[in-house]
């Protein structure tokens, strides 16, 4: 399949309230031919967040949140990246929880590939990862894992969640991933993460 017709990630529906969506800025998965300045995009998202929640941002709230979102975009989805970035925030001033989603050509046997994409055999996990089947209306039967991993540069463990699917119709594999030291945060966001996973689809331009 040529790059021109390569399928990209599509969003059928996602509750915008807790999410800021930052599509790829370049590459075949980018939904736009050209981006405006990413900082302008993030500032507009910040304005929408305050307005949607009917909260008063005060004199500096929009600038503060816009800068936070822009720093996350630069850190987790810099120019040249080919994945979508979803930032989870219940309140505009929360520290965002970054969640990434990517699509690529199907590769290898389905079960083996899904286990690899979800790191179901992660040797760095503190204990065996929790592995479950996961169904999405748009992507079909997939797999999800939850695991704790140690870090070389920190005494704190990371709580990690991954979802993956083989979309046979399009010959593609899709993966979603996030990780944080804030275990309570990822637990609180679990329902929203599942909702995001169920909202993604595949679109062929």
Strand content: 25-35%
- State the name of the first-level CATH class: Alpha Beta
Q: How many domain regions?
A: 1
Determine the structural class based on helices, strands and strand pairing: alpha+beta
Low-confidence parts:
1-5
Counted beta strands: 9
Q: Give the C-alpha Rg.
A: 17 Å
CATH architecture: 3-Layer(aba) Sandwich
Characterize the main sheet. Answer: 7 strands, antiparallel
Total helical elements:
5
Intertermini distance: 12 Å
Average pLDDT confidence is 90
| Helix percentage | 25-40%
Order of H and E elements: EEHHEEHEEEEHHE
Overall 3D form: globular
Strand order in space, largest sheet: 2-3-4-8-7-6-5
Q: Which fold name is given in CATH as the topology?
A: Protein Transport Mog1p, Chain A
Structural write-up:
This protein is an alpha+beta fold. The protein has a single domain (about 5-205), classed as Protein Transport Mog1p, Chain A (3-Layer(aba) Sandwich). It is about 25% helix and about 30% strand. It has helices spanning about 40-50, 60-75, 110-115, 185-190, 190-200, and strands at about 10, 20, 85-90, 95-105, 130-135, 140-150, 160-165, 170-180, 200-205. The strands form two sheets. A seven-stranded antiparallel beta sheet has the order 2-3-4-8-7-6-5, sandwiched between helices. Strands 1-9 form a two-stranded antiparallel ribbon. Strand 7 and strand 8 (about 170-180) form a beta hairpin. Helix 1 packs across helix 2 (about 60-75). The longest helix is centred in the middle third of the chain and has 16 residues, at about 60-75. The two termini are about 10 Å apart. The model is unreliable at about 1-5 (pLDDT under 50).
């Amino acid at each position: 399949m040529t790059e021109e017709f390569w399928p990209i990630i599509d969003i059928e529906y996602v509750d915008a309230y807790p999410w800021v969506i930052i599509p790829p800025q370049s590459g075949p998965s980018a939904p736009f031919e050209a981006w405006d300045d990413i900082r302008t995009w993030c500032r507009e998202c910040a304005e929408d967040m305050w307005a949607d929640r009917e909260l008063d941002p005060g004199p500096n709230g929009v600038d503060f949140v816009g800068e936070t979102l822009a720093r996350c975009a630069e850190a987790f989805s810099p120019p040249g990246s080919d994945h979508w970035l979803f930032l989870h925030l219940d309140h505009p001033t929360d520290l965002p929880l970054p969640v990434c989603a990517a699509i690529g050509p199907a590769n290898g046997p389905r079960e083996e590939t899904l286990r690899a994409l979800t790191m179901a055999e992660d040797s760095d996990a503190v204990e065996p990862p929790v592995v479950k089947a996961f169904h999405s209306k748009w992507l079909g039967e997939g797999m999800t894992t939850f695991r704790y991993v140690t870090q070389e540069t920190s005494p704190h463990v990371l709580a990690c969640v991954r979802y993956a699917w083989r979309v046979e119709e399009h010959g593609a594999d899709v993966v979603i991933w996030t990780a944080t030291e804030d275990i309570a945060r990822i637990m609180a966001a679990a329902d929203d993460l599942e909702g995001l996973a169920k909202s993604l689809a595949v679109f062929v331009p």
